[in-house]
Amino acid sequence: MLNRGYAYTTIISTKYHGQTLLSHLASLYPHSTPQAWQQKLNNGEVTLNGVTATGSESVTLGQTLVWNRPPWIEPDSPQHFEVLFEDPHLLAVNKPSGLPTLPGGGFMESTLLRLVQKQTPNANPVHRLGRGTSGIVLFAKTPKAASNLFASWNTSKIQKIYRALAQNIAQYDSYEILTPIGLVPHPLIGSVWAANPSGKPSKSLAKVISRTTNTTTFELSLNSGRPHQIRIHLASIGHPLVGDPLNGLTGQPLENLLGLPGDGGYFLHAQFLKFHNPITGEQINLEAPLPSGFSLHQ
Questions:
Q1: pLDDT in tens, 75-85
Q2: How confident is the model at residue 142 (pLDDT cuts 50, 70, 90)?
Q3: For residue 103, pLDDT beyond 60
Q4: C-alpha distances out from residue 64 to 7, 51, 134, 222, Å
Q5: How far is CA 156 from CA 102, 124, 143, in A?
């Protein structure tokens, strides 16, 4: 799908004051080399405070930097979802693996948000799942429902249960995982979320559902909502997800065959969501059927 392009906007902070624009762009967006950024500058794609930039300028605190990325063909992704629940206030859908929840990472139009809003323009997601993660995504259809759900999302009022297919055979039947999660260096994109002793407190509860000769299927519930928490937590106890292109045995990025957070191929499914309707108070118990890939690999 050819999208409409996108304007990436940032404000120059104190940290970058005095850098040349070219070096700033290369450090801010390390996916492109300085030579590639100079070509984008030569093409007139970058402005600084509204003026087309050359790259030789020194950036100063408070300036507005805009990269007007031309339209590009987005990678293929599923273009469907299943409605699990709907009332005047809420919409819950089953997202397929491979479809981003929100714009980002090369996807602007091919997202669950765009697909849902074509049918329900006032629906906005209360949370997000990684592109490779399948399962329940909850949308609010009114500002009041959204506000109430945001306030209680990472509390015991909302029960989120996931199914994960992981590498290696679990020694125990259950685990309380408390590995802190924070940013660590990544050579392709600057930094990624991973196990980090100085990161933010995180808590997952993992229960073994089944074992094979070289895999373990876990059921997990979250007591915090850190980015990629399940992938990082299981990896940190020696059980990276089957097919995970990013996380190694310690919860750190793989040293070889470097992957990116948005890459798919792993098996993680948001299976159950239990909560009270923030407007009516009724108990809602949602379930998204497991994708066929889980049974094929078990």
A1: 999 999 999 99
A2: very high
A3: yes
A4: 12, 10, 37, 38
A5: 25, 22, 22
pTM value is 0.85
Token pair for 146 = 């959204």
- How does DSSP assign 120-176, residue by residue? -TT-EESS---TT-EEEEEEESSHHHHHHHHHHTTSTTSEEEEEEEEES--SSSEEE
| C-alpha to C-alpha distance for 90 and 84, rounded to whole angstroms | 11
Query: Could you give the angle at the alpha carbon of 115 between the alpha carbons of 109 and 120, nearest 5°?
Result: 130
Using CA atoms, how far apart are residues 22 and 26, in angstroms rounded to an integer? 6
| Torsion angle, alpha carbons of 106, 108, 110, 112, to 10 | 110
Q: How high is the mean pLDDT of the chain?
A: 93
Number of other CB atoms surrounding residue 197 within 10 Å: 7
The mean pLDDT of 180-207, rounded to a whole number, is 92
**Which residue shows structure tokens 């273009």?**
79
At 118, is the secondary structure helix, strand, or coil?
A: helix
